[in-house]
Amino acid sequence: MTLSDILAHLDLSAAGDAPFGLSVGHVSLTVHAPEPLRARLIAYFGETITAPGGGAPVHLLEGQSLPQEPDWIDWQREGGKSGRKDAVCDLGAARLIRKVRSGVTVVQAPGVAIALGALADNESTVINFINTQVLNACLRQGWQLAHAAAVTDGARTLAISGLSGGGKSTSILRMMDLPGTQFLSNDRVLIQGGPARALGIPKHPRINPGTILGNPRLHGMLSEARKAELRALPPADLWELEEKYDLIVPEVYGSGRMRLYGPLTDFWVLNWSHDSDQQTRVTPVTLADRPDLLSAIMKSPGPFYQHASGAFEPNGNSPDPAPYIEALNGVRVCEVSGRIDFDAIAAAGKALFHA
């Protein structure tokens, strides 16, 4: 099976004849999607929607499949994560990616970005696939991918990293309670130096119940019965609970509260603990001397990424620290240590943005 075989088998016209444009910073996409998925995506992407016009094409083909099943190879997950998530099959200049849980299949090649399968039932997977095309374009231009959430006021941008479940989403949403701040990213931040800049992707936060319970502004996202059930859980169990809810930023914070680009001035790395009896501290550090903190910032581009050379990201590859240190040159990097205290980090954020 070759890329030509696949393209000959697929019906690209099934994606409809009314594409929409997506503009993120300097990157533009033209998305071809059938209804009702098209309308749902336009509603989700909101202020980033533009008229179609020359952006890299993305085709969403509901219910279609490959002409035959390839020999899949499991994609190695990053440290600390278990379970099968992705599988890949390389076909020369193309790569096939299978999302194991949903069965959605992706065809990725230069000028080709196609998703197949039960797309309407896996909207989050489709959104991630579209945003991956933004990431790919920026990575080929020398940006670095950080596992971080971020807010900006247009003059100052704060990114926050931490291990998965470390509290970065809860922390960044507390910053959104500050006047003048705008949401830049919940989980992926592209960074580039000279001077340092940050670019987010149009992905609304997917948050766990602990984040909702800890912020009165978000309480309406849960029923009274569910809130009562969750409050009865031991704090450690609530912290570990994976039960995702979509927080649509304009619905909660109002229009004009998203801004996907800003000058990167501050980067905090969460290295705190529920078990600590120490006061929460935000302390400046030098990343070159703290590789343990840098590991929380770096993020592999994953199986979708095709380098400018044409080679796909190797299975099991780890990011190179050097470009991250260069991109963060001039950025004030701090370690957040001591006990987990979201009131304390909110106060530190207020001091930062309203200095």
Q: Characteristics of this structure?
A:
355 residues, 11 helices, alpha+beta, Phosphoenolpyruvate Carboxykinase, domain 3, 26% helix
Could you describe the 3D structure shown?
- This protein has 355 residues and is an alpha+beta fold.
- It folds into two domains: 3-139, no CATH class; 144-205 and 247-353, Alpha-Beta Complex (Phosphoenolpyruvate Carboxykinase, domain 3).
- It is built from eleven helices and 20 strands.
- The strands form three sheets. It has a nine-stranded mixed beta sheet, with helices on one face. Strands 10, 11, 12, 13, 14, 15, 18, 19 and 20 form a nine-stranded mixed beta sheet that branches.
- Strand 6 and strand 7 form a beta hairpin.
- The chain is globular.
- The model has no long low-confidence stretch (mean pLDDT 92).
Question: What is the third-level CATH name, the topology of the largest domain?
Answer: Phosphoenolpyruvate Carboxykinase, domain 3
- Taking all residues together, what is the mean pLDDT? 92
Strand count? 20
What share of the residues lie within helices?
A: 25-40%
Structure annotation, total helices? 11
The stretches of 5 or more residues where confidence is low (pLDDT under 50) are: none
Distance between the termini: 60 Å
CATH class category label of the largest domain: Alpha Beta
Give the amount of beta strand, in percent: 25-35%
Q: Give the class from helix and strand content and strand pairing.
A: alpha+beta
| CATH architecture title of the largest domain | Alpha-Beta Complex
Total count of domains: 2
Biggest sheet strand order reads: 3-1-2-4-9-8-7-6-5
Query: Which radius of gyration do the C-alpha atoms yield?
Result: 21 Å
**Overall outline:** globular
- Sheet with the most strands, sense and barrel status: 9 strands, mixed
